[in-house]
Amino acid sequence: MFEANRLLKMIDAKVVPLGMQCFTGNDALIEVLGLTGFDFVMLDSEHCAINPRGIEDQVRTAQLAGLVPIVRIPELSDETAIRRSLEAGAEGLIVPMVKSAADVQRVLDSALFPPLGTRGICPAVRAAGYSFRTFGEYAEWNNSNVLVIPLIEHPDGVDHIDEICAVEQVRIVTFGAGDLAYAMGEGTKMLKSPLVQDAYRRVREAAKRHGVAVMGGPVLEPTTESCRDALDDGVSIFCLGLDILGFRRFCEDTVQALDSALRGTAYTRPAAPASGFPGTGGGPVASREEPIPT
Questions:
Q1: Contact in structure between 98 and 136 (CB atoms under 8 Å)
Q2: What is the DSSP string of 113-143?
Q3: What's the gap between Cα 17 and its chain centre?
Q4: Separation of alpha carbons 92 and 10, rounded Å
Q5: Long-range contacts of 118-124 (CB under 8 A, 24+ apart)
Q6: Sign of the CA dihedral running 128, 132, 138, 142
Q7: N or C: which end of the chain has fewer CB within 10 A?
Q8: What sign does the CA torsion over 25, 7, 235, 73 have?
Q9: 146 near 93, Cβ under 8 Å?
Q10: Which of 64, 54, 67 is closest to 25 using CA atoms?
Q11: How many Å is the Cα radius of gyration of the chain?
Q12: Measured in Å, how far apart are the chain's first and last C-alpha atoms?
């Protein structure tokens, strides 16, 4: 009944997993990911209206679509969000603003059952199969399969990256260039900042030393070249795209396509709003280098 976490199996087999960030919580969009070859979905409950206390339907949709559901929790101190995300069936947690190994251990303590943690039991939840008889199997599965993924997006997290990667249960780390750039006084430069570039290098090198996989990639404009560059940098789990920004990009490109078609004709259209992406106008995006927008 309780199968091994497919993401862990892919990592161990050196098969590259592909996922996308979901900010809308839309079940149809989650289904489309499963129908088009994605392996996991990151359901965001830090910055959007997806509620970790009511996330069960999105997790169910993801699993029915063949996706590994991962939830980004609102904050590492939110024990209720941790517990209810896992009780809904999430197979991994992305943990924002991790600054130390102690932060990771705090989340592990809430996510794992004794003797590895202090999470309380409840058989009347989806993840446990609503079964008291098999709850022991579920608890064992949980303690060996649930992924706790630190999001390194603060200078303290960069400084303590070796101790974070040394935590036994940390199999994957990811990097948030947006919050880190702001914390370093670099504004919206993200990976255009040499300081942020150096921090990202330190995270990748520490992960490699400890045998920890790096989740990342060119989120907003994946191309063959940019994906290969990320692979060469050491990224082995790709999280590409963000549903609501992908839809905005489609809308901008659609408006631009029609506007271009009307040039030189007797027809006109209202001027398009400024693009929501770096660059000018509604045209191609100039720079999309942040591993995980935050």
A1: no
A2: -TTT--PPP-SSSGGGTT-STTHHHHHHHHH
A3: 12
A4: 14
A5: 119/83, 119/86, 120/83, 122/87
A6: positive
A7: N
A8: positive
A9: yes
A10: 54
A11: 20
A12: 35
Whether the CB-CB separation of 40 and 16 falls below 8 Å is answered with no
Q: Which SS3 state, helix, strand or coil, does residue 92 take? A: strand
Q: Phi/psi of residue 68, each to 5°?
A: -80, 120
What does pTM read for this prediction? 0.92
Structure tokens at 214: 């790096």
Q: Which alpha helices (H) appear in 89-214, and where do they start and end?
A: 101-111, 135-145, 155-159, 161-165, 177-183, 194-209
Q: Are the beta carbons of 93 and 85 closer than 8 angstroms?
A: yes
Tokens of 42: 């990151």
Task: Evaluate whether 173 touches 202 at the Cβ level (below 8 Å).
Answer: no
Give 143's contacts (C-beta < 8 A, 6+ positions apart).
Answer: 112, 113, 116, 117
Cα 118 to the center of its chain, rounded Å = 25
Question: Look-up: residue for tokens 């490699």?
Answer: 208
Nearest to 18 by CA among 43, 38, 36: 38
Please state, in angstroms and rounded to a whole number, the distance separating the CA atoms of residues 26 and 273. Answer: 26
Q: Which residues pair with 175 in a beta bridge?
A: 152
Provide the token pair at 270.
């209202």
pLDDT in tens, 226-258: 999 999 999 999 999 999 999 999 999 999 999
The pLDDT tens digits of the residues spanning 122-134 come to 999 999 999 999 9
